[in-house]
Amino acid sequence: MIKTLLLVGTGGFLGSVSRFMASRFMQNNFPSAFPLGTFFVNITGCFLIGFIYGISERSSLLTSGWKLFLAVGFCGGFTTFSTFANENLALLRDGAFFYFFLYTGLSVFLGIAATFSGVLITKIL
């Protein structure tokens, strides 16, 4: 159990730090009322988790420990639903209804599409 907690915790730490850096980079280099930083990390994380699970289903390349580290830990720390929800609330409070619907719709649709793409790529490889 300790090993599992360390795998998930270490992956989560690295994912959280990576999310902070990627989100900050996007917001600093592409300023917009649209929450591009969180959108980018969530869609990227969806693709990664699809890719990780696709690889684990097709081969024994990823052990259960690596799957815990990458999917549960890293991707869990990298993506963020709570920030997504808070940013949507801020968009609603600011009356930015277009961005609210765009952000919510694209996040859900592209998140699922990115996860599917990650799995699909592993089937092509």
What's this model, at a glance?
The chain has 5 helices and no strands.
Walk me through what this model shows.
- It is a single chain.
- By secondary structure, the protein is mainly α.
- The chain is 86% helix and 0% strand.
- The chain contains 5 helices and no strands.
- It has helices at residues 2-29, 36-58, 64-78, 81-93, 97-124.
- Helix 1 (2-29) packs across helix 2 (36-58) and helix 2 (36-58) runs antiparallel to helix 3 (64-78).
- The chain is globular and about 50 Å long.
Question: Which properties best describe this structure?
Answer:
125 residues, mainly alpha, globular
As a percent range, the share of strand residues is under 5%
Kindly state the number of beta strands: 0
User: Helix amount, in percent?
Assistant: over 70%
The helix/strand class is mainly alpha
Q: Describe the main β-sheet briefly.
A: none
Mean pLDDT: 94
Low-confidence stretches: none
What's the quaternary structure here?
single chain
Return the string of H and E elements.
HHHHH
Overall morphology: globular
Helical stretch tally:
5
How far apart lie the N and C ends? Answer: 34 Å
Write the layout of secondary structure elements.
Elements: H1 2-29, H2 36-58, H3 64-78, H4 81-93, H5 97-124
Helix pairs in contact: 1-2, 1-3, 2-3, 2-5, 4-5
